[in-house]
Structure formats: structure tokens, C-alpha cells
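Continuing the batch. This is chain 6 of the set; chains 1 through 5 are on the previous pages. Same settings as before, nothing changed between runs. Recording input and output for traceability.
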Amino acid sequence: MGHINSNSYYTLQRRLDQAPQGAPASETLIKILEILLARDEAQLVSVLPINLFTLEEASRLWKKSNQEARVILDVLADKGILFDFAAGGTQAYLLAPTMAGFFEFSLMRLDDRFDKKILSELYYQYINVEEDFMKGIFSLEPAIGRALVQEDAIQEKDRVVVLDYERASHIIDTSSCITVGICYCRHKMEHLGKACQNPQEVCLTFNKSAESLAKHKIARSISKEEARRILNLCIDKGLVQTGDNVQESVNWICNCCSCCCEALLAYKRLGYSANINTNFVSRPSDEPCTECGECIERCPVNAIELDKRKNGHSYARIDSGRCLGCGVCVRFCPSHSIVLERREQTAFVPRDSFERYILSVISTGKLQNLLCDNYTLLTHDLLRRFLKIILSLKPTKRLLAQDQLQSRFLTAITRTEHYTLFNKLYNDGKKPDYSHPELRRTSAKSY
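Output for chain 6:
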């Protein structure tokens, strides 16, 4: 390892910025990292791979014994900086992303390891005031999150088809492990004197991610029955469910309010341009509107206003471009004058975290960081610089944008050691078919 000095946090910032989500340089971010990590920890994390890695890989990169490396990795996992995965005799780690990652874990944790008030103020500055980070998050393709439709907002008589991965109930029912933690957004706003009265212990995590958070006491394990109770409580309060933008092995579901949720606040602030909506959209029904204004009050993204028909009666005019398709307005409309219908085109949702990550690496122009991810080697640094130039050329960018080439790349990368490790941890060794992403659909339920 190189000499550890005051530049360690800036080195880590540059490493975090290599990932698709990015971490734009800011003095605010450096202050956040200084709270979360000691200087020597920051230096060690800055050379970890983008991919899943094993204890042995960390030992080689850090030039430490396996025992020394394990102690450090456990401390980092305790802090929520790393995910700690196990399957059978395989132990692996993954550097948590910034958002839907270690930013949230530092506030949603059930203990007081960090000064949450100072962190809340810094997160608010970096995410809600400075806009570079959220602009980067919202430009990701595919998006890291998506809204989930509230199933009981769909009327049985309409017989609308709802796919499994669109239903929060299915995510709960099929999870191998579930945890709950403190809502990062509302807890942050509480320290700033801006929080609403909605419940805070409602942040749900699933499967391997939940196992890691439970193991390191960042969140507490709960049963599927308790998860359903939390979900139903939040739905009854008019909160919006947003979740991990994957079909299988979903990692998280948030229960969001429009006044605190960073995703919904940014969605409105940055121009409703993020593709995080469900495959549904609200529309006026044939029932007369009573002009109560409940739908306007409840809509989390200001997509509804009242308008007058020629006969003098009002109706809800809904901006389909803004509408999340969450169903909150439908559930709370006392006159049943709004209904949900399925959008004409079903949005693409990646099969799993692996596919989403690979596609986001390509779309953000950071493929070179994935291919040459040893941050201790000068040769990898030179290759990253060279590939960045090649991959930035317009002909290359056009090729990488083609679905056919992306499918071939996904198929090729499934032959690598890192994918074998991912597959063992996430898919029980069953190799998915990534060759026709546009044709993939899970089973559906009609309402």
C-alpha cells in the first residue's frame, strides 16, 4: 500500500466516481467520508474492485494476511460500507453504492455509531442543495429504482394484468430474508426540523442484502408477516412504494412521502424526467368528480389538477408524463372518479442486479472501469485511460447502444470468474439467460 495521507479521502472520492452512480467531487462529500471512515480505511477502500471480491483478493490488494484483511472487512461491513455475502462455503464482499447504499445505511441503522445530526446536514447539502449527485443518479439507464403499483387500487372489474415483479406483495412473499431499518429520508429531515409525522422504521431490505445488514446489526430481521403489516400500514397512510429496479432478488423497498423522500423531491425538482414510474397511469373514470381535492392533496408528484368539463362538472386532469402510476390517488378518491390503467408500453426492467449494473456501466461510459478494475496497478490505470478514449468515440458509442451487442456482452461476461461468484451468491448457481431482455417477463396476476 502507498503512504496514507490527507489525500486518502480524495482518492476514495475518485474511486467512487468510477462507478455508474458516480460521486461528484465536493468538499461536502469529503466531510461525509471523514465521518464514515478513518483515513487508513478510506485508502484501503479506494483500491477495492468494482466487482464482487473475495477475502483473498482483498488480501492481495492490501498486501495483508487473510486474517488481517478479514478484521478490516468486518469493520467496514459493520459500518455499512461493504456488503458481506455468504453462500455455502463462499464468502464475498461488495463495496456498497452511495445511494441505496452506504449513505442510507449510516442513518437507517438502529445504533448511534455515527453522529446522525451532522451527517443529516451534510447529506442535505450534498443531495438536496448541490445538484450534481442527483442529476447523475437520475441520468442512469436503467434507473436504480422504480415505483411499485398499489395492488388494491386496481379494480377487479378492469381485469388489469400485474406482473410479479410489479407487486410489493410478491417481493415479500418470495424473499429469503427481510430486514427493516429507519427511513433514511425522514430521519435526515427530522434532524433538520423538516420531517413529517409518517412512521420511520419502515425501510425494507431483502435477500442477500438483508442478510448482510442483519448480520452487522444495521437493520433488524423481521418475518414476512411483519413486512406485510409494515407495507399495509404505509399504503394506508398514502405512502408510495419505490423499490430496486430488478425483476429477481430485489434488494430494497422504500415507503416514500413526497415531503421527505429524496427520489420524489428530485423527481419534481429536476423536471419529472426520470423513468421511475410504474407500468400504470391514472385517468379519469366515468364517475362524476365531487371536487373534494383529495387526489391533488395525495398525489406525490403534483400530477393532478381539477378541470371543468363543458357541462360544468369537474374532473381530474392528470399529466401522464408526470404520473408515477402508484395508485395513491385512486385509493383515496371517495367518488371513484379516477382509475388505473396499464400503459401502452411495458418498461424494460433488468432481470437482476448483475444485468442492471452492466447496462448502467455501458450507458454511463464507464465500461473501462469494470474491465480494468485493479486500482493498484499502473497498467490498469493506463488501460482505463486508453479504453475511455476508444469507448467515447461516436461509432463505438453507437455500437454499445445496440441491444444485440449488449446481449452478446452480457452473455460473454457470464463466463468470467466474477459472474460465477455473483451467480453462486444470488442465483443459487442457476445461470439466467440474458440473450433476449426485451422478451423476458415473469408470471402475471389479473385484478
